[in-house]
Write a structure and sequence with these properties.
With 447 residues, the protein is of the alpha/beta class. It is built from 9 helices and 32 strands. The strands form 7 sheets. Strands 1, 4, 5, 6, 8, 12, 13 and 14 form an 8-stranded mixed beta sheet that branches. It is globular. It starts with 8 loop residues before the first strand and ends with a strand.
């Protein structure tokens, strides 16, 4: 089969937070897609990427009932040309489950993009779409090459956690092999003879990261009908397509497709017949070199911190942090000499004398006392930091409060959690706990 000729594409953004556990306690009461990066919600970066492409008319943002109201507020702030609709799915639904729900509601009529709600990338999506159409791809996958390791720094087995073995052809445009390192016994992979005969110059990489940006042909939804146990597009649907692409259409265990008017969009019946007779599944990839476009997932505490640092200091070249507030500076408010150029601040922020903020994002309505030192920190809305507090590599969620003289390093503080005066905390997650007097205090959990 080949991809449908594409006019305006539909994009599906997965904002239902199934990957949010890696960001706990940040996602305890806030959906992943609403987390601020450079004082902008994560979702805004996916919308900006899609808007720049010029190929998308509609964006379906997948969420659940628990996060609906928060994401409604995020979407209401969007002022661009995209039509955005929030689609509610069941709690815990995987990406493949969400696609079935959208298909069942008649919301996917042609080729579509599937994007994780934690992806930040300035890769020109129109080039991915052009490759997808040119090759008649069943799926086109965005891959980002990781920076090279020093020659003396050999990768060890434990370093393969979360790594994929990715096989591509010599043109670096065909995706021929995909296997999680966790599924390979001792890092040993098995490649079929038929693949090697067809592609004798197969390159296998362990340095290609998958930022979860895919462009699927519409017919791929038929696979999900036939494979109702598939829950994940990344871990089940995509590997399945990669494995099956060397089989003839007749050998693919798919139901016979019936002619449907929506599948013939921008495609004559003769062209549709020719496409079906073409036969092969074809998986393609768009590989970004390590020194190319910005592309990452804020899918862990470390990655989330790095994304904030990159945006604030301009490391993501074509993305901007949230606009600095235009309110006039008043005595006791943020002073230009107290914050470096690699930081971001929201509106109505107050900062006491002799305080300094470096490489940090300070959200709106935060209050910082005198003698405060912040380095590589993220403060969400309404955080209060009292006098003489020193923090580095910390994330403070909405409404958190750190009392006088506390020192925090590599700490995540949950929403509305209070850290006691003089506390010295390192490498912990502090989550909400109510004491006997009814006050919320910090309780340490293993990081």
């Amino acid at each position: 089969r080949t991809a449908t000729a594409v006019g305006m594409l539909t994009a599906v953004v997965l904002a239902n937070g199934n990957d949010g556990d890696n960001l706990y306690p940040l996602t305890e009461d806030m959906p992943l897609a609403a987390l601020p990066v450079g004082n902008r919600p994560l979702l805004s970066y996916q919308l900006e990427m899609l808007q720049r492409a010029g190929s998308f008319g509609e964006v379906l943002v997948v969420t659940n009932d628990r996060h609906l109201s928060r994401l409604e507020a995020v979407v209401s702030e969007y002022r661009g040309p995209l039509r955005i609709e929030l689609v509610v799915v069941e709690e815990g639904a995987g990406s493949a489950d969400a696609l079935r729900t959208l298909r069942g509601r008649g919301r996917l009529a042609g080729d579509f993009a599937l994007i994780s709600g934690d992806t930040i990338s300035d890769v020109p999506f129109q080039k991915i779409a052009a490759m997808h159409q040119l090759h008649g791809a069943s799926v086109t996958v965005l891959l980002k090459q990781q920076p090279p390791r020093p020659a003396a720094d050999k990768k060890k087995a434990r370093d393969l956690d979360g790594t994929d073995f990715v096989g591509i052809d010599e043109s670096r445009q065909r995706l021929l092999y995909l296997e999680s390192a966790a599924d390979c016994d001792g890092g040993v992979i098995t490649v079929s003879e038929s693949m090697l005969r067809a592609h004798p110059h197969l390159e296998v990489h362990s340095d290609l990261a998958d930022p979860h940006v895919y462009l699927f042909a519409h017919w791929v939804l038929e696979v999900l009908d036939h494979k109702p146990h598939f829950s994940s597009a990344k871990f089940e649907l995509l590997p399945y397509l990669v494995r099956k692409q060397f089989l003839d259409q007749a050998n693919l265990p798919l139901p016979q497709a019936e002619a449907q008017p929506q599948q013939a969009t921008a495609m004559s019946s003769a062209a549709a017949t020719a496409a079906r007779l073409a036969g092969a599944v074809r998986c393609c990839c768009y590989v970004v070199p390590h020194d190319g476009h910005y592309c990452m997932r804020a899918c862990s505490i470390a990655a989330y911190m790095q994304a904030n640092l990159d945006i604030c200091k301009g490391g993501a070249a074509t993305f901007d942090k949230a606009a600095e507030p235009t309110e006039p500076l008043r005595e006791g408010n943020f002073a230009a000499s107290n914050i470096d150029q690699q930081s971001a601040r929201g509106g109505s922020v107050e900062l006491g004398p002799r305080s300094q903020v470096k490489k940090s994002a300070v959200g709106p309505h935060c209050r910082l006392g005198a003698g405060v030192r912040l380095t590589n920190c993220v403060l969400m809305e309404g955080v209060v930091v009292h006098d003489k507090v020193h923090m580095s590599n910390c994330i403070l969620c909405r409404g958190a409060e750190v009392h006088e003289g506390a020192t925090l390093k590599d700490v995540q503080v949950g929403s509305n959690v209070s850290v006691e005066a003089g506390a010295n905390v390192k490498s912990e997650a502090l989550t909400a706990e109510v004491d006997a007097e009814g006050s919320v205090v910090g309780s340490a959990e293993e990081d």
